[in-house]
Design a protein that fits this description.
AB_hydrolase_fold (chains A, B), Four Helix Bundle (Hemerythrin (Met), subunit A), Rossmann fold, globular, hydrolase (chains A, B), homodimer, 2 domains, alpha/beta
């Protein structure tokens, strides 16, 4: 891992704008054909998380590196992993004043500057650059190609929901795709989950109901509300569907456990069996209070980004999905953001800055050499 | 003239970033075919100055409006004219903290947001937008097309020196083109100017020399240094060449007056005649002390932009030009910026953000529909 001295604020030139911070990146010369050849540079853009050196051996694109004799670079996104301005994560996430430099535009400018400098230092100004990324990193890869065509000649954006903004895509998309994933795995599993929410709420109101639920789901501490259980179960379904590795197939595993016992008539016990089967190494089911969730959100870079520009209107409504009805309500969303960071989200900014509705025409003219790959079982594929 | 409530800071989302300001724009429906036709919207981007309503009748593009049945819009650039954040120009130009939001990136985002909102309000989402501008406004028009292809389908950029950055274009270009303009007008005029600098400096060191020069050039107050006169003369040559209206042709007018009297042997008296002939309505020649120039620079938005990102390395060196030798020295340039605004310029940022060197390849792929028009007598054409 290396550090690059990065400009904190690329767009404003005020009092603090000449501050810099150390941005982490990794580089591998193992397969590179060299600066004087036409060998490309594959730049993998980190998203909402730390980067790891072993990405050099696991990524799909990297497997193509020997063939293309490419130089490999991984760039960590500002404010994630070790690339924190202001020294520590605590300082960087302190308030809206320290978090203000966390945005997709600044992140793209970071990549532009780092790549330009790196090419200069390697005398590789003529080497073509391909940007690569998945999920949020995939959006950045596509946007880097669109916004900095002089820096990248192409992009491979995997599972990048660049259309899940504003009203471009139906708000139900995310929940509908997850629900379809479960339904395709097993119709009875889908029905069991769909009917469980009412049952959980009802049980919780009964005498000793929360205690019974806590025992049934083996929660790490006694539940204090039905919501705590509902949130955690939804989270488990989201995660299993979104990171549904075809080799291990956690959705199938979960559904198989739910469907397993033909004699079980209590749908909640079925769900509990399913959760146990996919809960991995945890001995008990973690549950979080509203205060704990808020504290965790406050320290999440993605919450900040969601509360400023990355407003993805995800809702779970209608008959085609298995979750508890959850509308997207911008007023509530704004209250949540105000309470967390004292900011008001800008729901129309991403489509103004990067386009959206007319993306096909723009791509025809402009965004040549962008490959969007989407797993149809990925819930974000509805916006990809 | 109308006002649009514009976002002050499009890219950072911190404490003050939800501030807005009133941005001026003008709109004319006179020729418009309407929202449901394919009539285009011509958007003229203001540069470093106020916008005027009479631009609707004078601009070249506007003369094409009846033919295309186009809607006409003129947008004033933030911090120029009446579009000052913080109420007044005095407040907006107070220091680097209030000036920090004056940048080309923010200005382009202003246009993107205003155009998007305007089209929505007019139900003209499908109307094609052509961006138009000259000089700095022309750079913005080209960059708007490059960076916001989903918002503009084309651009007409007149006299836009988008390559006069970094080391893309020879630093001598600006001075060489002006000198060529004068030389093409008259070889003896060019020689007279070229030889005058030494003469001015020599005269100034003589007893009562400054008094003699003050009288000869009819300065509005007595000169206190040769530099005051040199600066003003260079400024006059710059301005006359850059805004060399073919109808009035001030360069020819100036040279004719310099060449006029066959009996005049003093080159300075010849220069004085030339200046008088083009000095327009001023009764005397204005001269500025270093302090006055600094104060005027401090209140110039373009000085701020030059001291942050718009670093155009203009120098007057070598035998192909008629000015006093003036090297571009980045250290001196930085000292000037530090003294004026307490900022350090970023000379490589514009080429990182907008490209430059490989502009031709990028244009081939991406920047279709950009017309760059350059008057070859315009000194900025060397970077256009």
């Amino acid at each position: 891992m290396r550090n690059y001295t990065q400009t904190l604020d690329h767009f404003n030139f005020g009092t603090n704008s000449y501050d810099t911070f150390l941005q982490r990146y990794a580089i591998s010369f193992k397969y590179w054909g060299g600066a004087n050849t036409s060998s490309p540079i594959f730049v993998s853009l980190g998203g909402k998380g730390e980067i790891f050196i072993n990405e050099f051996s696991t990524s799909f694109v990297i497997t193509k590196a020997p063939h293309f004799k490419s130089l490999l670079v991984i760039i960590e996104h500002r404010y994630y992993g070790e690339s924190n301005p202001f020294g520590s994560k605590e300082e960087a996430y302190k308030n809206s004043s320290t978090l203000q430099y966390l945005s997709s535009e600044q992140a793209l400018a970071d990549c532009a500057q780092l790549i330009t400098d790196l090419k200069k230092n390697l005398s590789a100004e003529n080497s073509p650059v391909i940007a690569v990324g998945g999920s949020y990193g995939g959006m950045l890869a596509a946007w880097l190609r669109l916004k900095y065509p002089h820096i990248t000649i192409g992009a491979l954006a995997s599972s990048a929901p660049i259309l899940y903004f504003d009203d471009i895509t139906p708000h139900n998309g995310y929940c509908n795709v997850i629900s379809r994933d479960f339904r395709e795995s097993s119709e009875s599993c889908y029905r069991t989950i769909k009917n469980s929410w009412h049952q959980i709420r009802k049980t919780a109101t009964q005498h000793e109901g929360l205690t019974a639920l806590s025992q049934m789901f083996n929660t790490c501490r006694p539940l204090t509300s039905a919501k705590e259980l509902v949130d955690e179960l939804e989270y488990i379904y989201f995660v299993n569907a979104q990171f549904n590795d075809p080799l291990t197939n956690p959705v199938n595993k979960l559904c198989e456990a739910i469907d397993k016992d033909p004699h079980e008539i209590d749908p909640l016990r079925r769900i509990a069996s399913g959760v146990k089967a996919t809960n991995g190494f945890s001995k008990c089911l973690k549950v979080f209070s509203v205060e704990e969730e808020n504290e965790s959100d406050r320290l999440s870079g993605w919450s900040w980004q969601s509360c400023t520009e990355m407003v993805m209107p995800i809702e779970c409504m209608g008959n085609e999905q298995m979750f508890e009805a959850y509308p997207f309500n911008f007023t509530d969303y704004t209250s949540w953001c105000k309470a967390l960071f004292n900011v008001v989200p800008r729901p129309h900014w991403i489509t103004t800055e990067y386009g959206g509705r007319n993306i096909k025409e723009v791509l025809k003219d402009f965004g040549s050499n962008i490959i969007f790959s989407n797993g149809l079982r990925d819930p974000y594929s509805s916006g990809g």
